[in-house]
Protein 1
Amino acid sequence: MPTPVGPAPRDPNDPDFWDWGPPDDRPMARRHPIRAIVAIVVLASLLLLIVLNLF
């Protein structure tokens, strides 16, 4: 229920209010191997560019 100064605070007796851990019903986020591959390719190309500019 809204109050004149904003929304009402949550009920401190609500068990979900104190459960700050990861939710048990959702699996952990999987890693993105595409991002890692792109990052490695970009870093390798920058390193190769620096090495080739030195010679």
Protein 2
Amino acid sequence: MEYVHQAERRVANSDLAGALRAYTDAIQMDPSYGPAYLGIGGLRERMADFVEAERVYSVALRLRGVANIALARRALLRHRLGRKAAAFADLEKAVQRGRSAGMHGRILAGWYVERQAWPAALALWRRILAEHDSDPESDQAREARVQVHALTLLAATSDPVVVGGADHPSWVRRALASMARRGPVLRQR
């Protein structure tokens, strides 16, 4: 939409008030246009109007195509404001809903580590590693392998893949347990 492009140009030129007007015009033209809400939310954050930014992201949760992004942005905003429980719940939901764990998955895994929730962090890093299976030499795959290795050690007996996995009736679970015991292959550059 042209208004959003105008808003983005104005943001690039540090004309935040003009950008806000353009995003508002976009919403007046089409109240269901999600990118305009995300733009307003981002601008409100930049302007330190956190209450309004959170409100805008909350409205965007109802819009198709941007709901998950709005949820993740609201989570990061809430975390920044010290509302960690609400932030955690939002980001957890965003990562679960997403096709890919991506950057938000890495952030959530870090939050799990802060809470010493080793099995949850390990499960998320295993998901991230699996997502980079097609390019095992990428920086993301390397990072994921290191994290999986470290978290496997930290999770130890609380890792559901390892505990009872060797004797599990499912061959998949037994194979995962065997791979987990060997640890990930840490390739050097």
Protein 3
Amino acid sequence: MLKKILILILLICLATGCTNLSNQDLDGIVSSMLEKENTLYNVVFDGYKYYLPKGLKFVSKDDYNAHLLDGKNNSFYLYVDVLSYYNNTKLDYEENKDAYYSKKLDYRNQEGYLEITEIGENGYYFIEYMYHYGKMEAYVKEEDIKDAVTYMSSVLSSLTFNRTVLETLIGNNIIDYKEETYDVMKPKGNNVTQDTYLDYVERYDNYEEYGNNDTDEDSIDINITE
């Protein structure tokens, strides 16, 4: 009986992200989150799925982009690069010595990078986190960086693709496939200012809202067929 209780507690921890990472530095948070296989998911779209952890709220979606919010109303933007996944495009990233934090990632045969840049002198930082053909961006205060990186790690480590479905969506129409006019997966880094970031936010905020923004975070279960 005791063994069953311990297993149940472990499963609850995995599902809610209750592992305490607050005492770790960014290297420790990233390695702890990405070294372990994350098979959880509660958001499903055609061709891919991922896990939205407790603390993040799904706001809106447009094509392969999504707008998320945390409990402090920090915005997170997720872009899923299905075309690069389909073409098995390799990552080309050089660590930025001028950044607040910059690291090339390589875990479980998946590549990515985490780059954090201070924007202006108002104590805000621009986070760019790319892993396994997904990229998340956020603009947060310094004290929120660790929480933001933890959220991003949880989402990106759970991102899973369905090549069969993607084959039907883009495989036969790859020439006509709609591509973004900018390469979102490349780091913007020191080229980002507060004004350009706000323009970027405005672009995302034109997305159509999906569902109820007041959804209880404990019961998020988005299953959408587009």
